[in-house]
Specification:
With about 240 residues, the chain is of the alpha/beta class. It has one domain: Spore Coat Polysaccharide Biosynthesis Protein SpsA, Chain A, CATH 3.90.550. The protein has a 7-stranded mixed beta sheet with strand order 3-2-1-4-6-5-7, with helices on both faces. Strand 1, helix 1 and strand 2 form a beta-alpha-beta unit. Helix 1 runs parallel beside helix 2, helix 7 packs parallel to helix 8 and helix 7 packs across helix 9. The chain starts with a strand and ends with a helix.
Amino acid sequence: MIEDALIVVPAFNEAAVIGDTLHELLAVARYVLVVDDGSTDGTDRAARAAGAQVLRLGANLNYGGALQAGFRYAARRSSLPYVVTFDADGQHDPAHLDALLGPLREGRGDYVLGSRFQGGRAPSLPRSRDLGIRLFARAASLAVGFRVTDPTTGMAAMTREVSRVFLLDLFPQDYPDADVIIMLSRMGFKIIEVPVKMRPSHSGKSMHSGLIRPLYYIAKMSVSMIHLATRGDLREKRKEASIAA
């Protein structure tokens, strides 16, 4: 049983699937916080019925905003040394949690990403999605000086210090991606990837469906990556976050 990490699960209208996700998760992790991002389908009730703590937001803040609310909860109401982000839709397998937390516990990393592209056969993804991931992975790798394979994963483990840095206004309100990796690396944090397997989403929803949304996201992410790669004050921002905590 994992007792040294708060598992933060952002959820928006996931009432139909979150019970199954939490059933698996609570079997291996004691402290699970569902951040209900202004759902209208009873996601909060389903999460409470499954046995999780629930932080219900009064309005939809988007994925990044919901994560940030979870990080704020961790900073103010938890003393656990680690925080893990975990999606509500069943894609993530709780069996990989110890592998994510291992480098943190051993002092080898500060931010650990679960990568679908390490340790075996690459997952089958829509072509546009696969190309987007590989594009941002290549750009992030060039910016930080080491190989990044899966910057878009939502399965990540971090120290409390990293989770507090994510309370800064530099943290994206939509989806943390390659820009966050660049930001943390330039702040001096150690970033590691470990292999994980992802499953099909039980809800069948995609964060990047359609045509306009992916194009907008690529443009926005490109600007954000360039901005963070060229900022000269990120180590000072790290100190600022530590002082504020």
